[in-house]
Design brief:
- Helices cover about 45% and strands about 15% of the residues.
- With about 675 residues, the chain is α/β, with parallel strands linked by helices.
- It folds into three domains: about 130 residues, no CATH class; about 120 residues, 3-Layer(aba) Sandwich (Rossmann fold), CATH 3.40.50.720; about 280 residues, NAD(P)-binding Rossmann-like Domain (Rossmann fold), CATH 3.40.50.
- The strands form five sheets. Strands 10-9-8-11-12-13-18-22-21 form a nine-stranded mixed sheet, sandwiched between helices. A seven-stranded mixed sheet has the order 3-4-2-1-5-6-7, sandwiched between helices.
- The longest helix is centred in the N-terminal third of the chain and has 30 residues.
């Protein structure tokens, strides 16, 4: 029965529906012999059978895998059956009124038929589901490991169903935990909800589980951190399902379990995004993403691809990264279109175009823009590593400044309507070449917006967790090598966001922009880098000071202790989105000699004249103070979030308990 195919169910339905229509007449007339009423039965039986089979086909009843049926399939079946009974009853009464022949169809017959037919059609399907579940239980030969689930909601329910379908995983859920008091002492899939998160230690001995699965995709990081701490103290391991931003990116599914990562401990409550507004902006448009293979660019591409652009151009300098994101999106499209009429998995998708090119070559950018005529450009390509750009200032100028200039010129020439540049908090009161180069790039975007009147904007935010070259990757590598973990300064703080979260806000800002704005993302509270290092060490099952040491090496050239998000002289206000601020009069700060300064920077970069580059950057960005110089920091207005008030310049601070490199002993 469990291998019964839908074509057999179709034939079974055909027979059972005829039987159900017969018994509907028998029950209504209270006689077994309905020979006198056979014309009415024949008309109704044909109507009911054909309408039911047709509606079942149209609603996808015959496309369902009934071995894994759930309440959704039952509701669909009941709704389809109800519609078929009503339609056949109405048409039957019309035929009775219009035909001259003696046809009698009692008005109550369709309702009786509905009850009988619903039981007749659902019975075999639910039997398939029951036998499949029974067979799975019988096949469990290996011992099952008891686990508990934190979160008795939809995600937790999906985990249970997934484990029941896959007994080879060897996991058996024995208890739920949930902080909602209303769920206390309830049962989900016949599994008890034992209590809230604080009941985990006491329940370990009773239910003998050694692992807790955290099924809370929308929970903020502070809750995940608390739950992980409780589990560690109780001596049980933790797994987690992906967060809501990972699910939105389309790379993972709810039922994919993984170890708890630092991103989980730092994630915030989900941000409400106007998905329809973003879809309206992108759908049917030609979109180009620079740096399409990078951390931000690839996630931008994933999320943009969900909104069905007419064309998505993935532009990048590194062939391997573009190859990876192109095939990821292409393979996802193939899976979605599998079985569709006319779909050919081997044909290249003409809507998805990989382009290997360097934004520093102006003529090459013009040719690409003329060929693909993008409507929207997301500019994520940039050199971003502060120490490397301090050592190679010419590269920062040619890539971050001249590259942006080339893209803007090509965009204006081909009438691009929206241009969104990804900026950084390091562009605010910069102390590094990288930060100053990104500030000049912001000014170029504002200048292009003022000249064209188009929606050319910059979006400014801080560090993203998991990006290439991120401090998280460095710490993980050092932990794997046995330590020590190196932190530049005990009071070093940074703003952090997850990559999908940042991209969600970038897309939202692209909808809000009208031209010349600098959007600033609310990054929440800044995080001490040393705390980040401790969390990563503990997530690795190690202890700071016993297994891994933290060593302070001193700030690197161009680094500040605190990053800032707002510039003195810019007027900031909240947008209609709670997590996005905007500098409404940023264009007033554009230097009159910006074009001349950029040309001079290009000449200095060609000569690799570091002194000239620094001098010219200071001319264009007066607030730029190269590493080592000091500058006062203004206090922002009340309109600006409290996170900015903590912004400071690098300076002397107290020393912590972990040791500095070279000390040889704790300080």
């Amino acid at each position: 029965m469990k291998h019964l195919r839908n074509r057999y169910l179709f034939l079974l339905d055909l027979a059972l529906l005829l039987v159900a229509s017969y018994f509907a007449f028998v029950l209504r007339l209270e006689v077994w012999d309905i020979e006198r009423y056979w014309p009415g039965w024949a008309v109704f039986a044909v109507l009911a059978t054909l309408s039911t089979l047709l509606i079942f086909w149209r609603t996808g009843i015959y496309a369902r895998f009934w071995r894994y049926a759930s309440i959704d399939e039952v509701v669909l079946l009941a709704g389809s059956m109800t519609g078929a009974a009503l339609i056949s009853g109405i048409i039957g009464q019309i035929i009775v009124l219009l035909t001259p022949w003696p046809i009698y169809i009692p008005r109550s017959v369709p309702y009786i038929f509905l009850m009988l037919a619903l039981g007749a059609t659902s019975g075999p399907r639910l039997l398939i589901r029951l036998l499949a579940r029974t067979g799975s239980s019988q096949r469990r030969k290996q011992p099952m490991t008891p686990v508990a689930i934190m979160g008795a909601g939809e995600a937790g329910s999906m985990i249970v169903r997934e484990l029941l379908r896959n007994p080879q995983l060897g996991l058996r859920v024995v208890a739920f935990f949930d902080d909602d008091p209303a769920k206390r002492h309830m049962r989900l899939h016949n599994i008890p909800v034992v209590g809230n998160r604080y009941a985990i230690p006491e329940a370990v001995a009773r239910y003998r589980f050694r692992q807790v699965i955290i099924a809370m995709p929308t929970a903020p990081g502070r809750e995940i951190r608390d739950i992980v701490g409780i589990c560690e103290r109780a001596g049980v391991t933790t797994k987690i399902i992906p967060g809501i931003y990972e699910l939105l990116g389309g790379k993972v599914q709810v039922t994919q379990l993984r170890n708890v990562e630092i991103e989980d401990l730092l994630r915030r409550e989900p941000i409400k995004t106007d998905i329809e507004a973003v879809r309206e902006l992108v759908r049917g448009k030609r979109v180009l993403v620079t740096g399409g293979g990078g951390s931000i660019g690839s996630e931008l591409s994933r999320q943009i691809w969900r909104f069905e652009p007419a064309q998505l151009v993935l532009l990048g300098h590194g062939e391997n990264s573009i190859f990876e994101i192109y095939h990821e999106l292409h393979d996802r499209t193939e899976r979605n279109e599998a079985g569709a009429a006319g779909a050919s998995p081997t044909e290249p998708d003409t809507r998805l175009i990989p382009v290997i090119a360097d934004i520093r070559f102006a003529e090459e950018m013009r040719l690409i823009f003329r060929r693909y005529r993008p409507d929207i450009v997301f500019h994520a390509a940039a050199h971003k590593h502060v120490p490397l750009m301090e050592a190679n200032p010419a590269e920062a100028v040619t890539n971050n400044i001249l590259g942006t200039h080339n893209l803007l010129e090509a965009a204006l020439e081909t009438d691009v309507s929206h241009f969104v540049m990804i900026s950084t908090d390091k562009a605010v009161n910069p102390t590094s070449v990288m930060g100053a180069s990104k500030r000049v790039a912001e000014l170029l975007v504002q200048q292009a917006a003022r000249r064209s009147g188009k929606a050319y904007v910059a979006v400014r935010f801080g560090n993203v967790l998991g990006s290439r070259g991120s401090v998280v990757h460095t710490f993980k590598r050092q932990i794997a090598a046995g330590g020590p973990v190196t932190v530049t300064h005990p009071e070093m703080k940074r703003y952090f966001m997850t990559i999908p979260e940042a991209v969600q806000l970038v897309l939202q800002a692209s909808v809000l922009g009208t031209g010349g704005e600098v959007f600033v993302l609310d990054m929440g509270e800044p995080i001490r880098i040393v705390d980040l290092a401790r969390d990563l060490i503990e997530l690795s099952g190690l202890e700071v000071g016993r297994d891994i040491e933290i060593v302070f090496t001193g700030p690197r050239p161009g680094e500040k202790l605190f990053e800032e998000l707002f510039i003195e002289g810019e007027n900031y206000s909240r947008t209609q989105h709670q997590k996005i601020y905007v500098a409404t009069h940023a264009a007033r700060m554009i230097p009159l000699d910006l074009d001349e300064g950029v040309h001079a920077l290009a000449a200095a970069a060609r000569r690799h004249d570091r002194a000239a580059i620094i001098r010219l950057l200071q001319g264009l960005v007066p607030e730029y103070r190269p590493s080592g110089e000091s500058v006062a920091v203004s206090v922002p207005s009340e309109e600006v979030p409290a996170m900015v008030i903590e912004s400071k310049r690098a300076g002397a601070t107290r020393l912590p308990s972990p040791r500095w490199a070279g000390d040889g002993h704790p300080s």
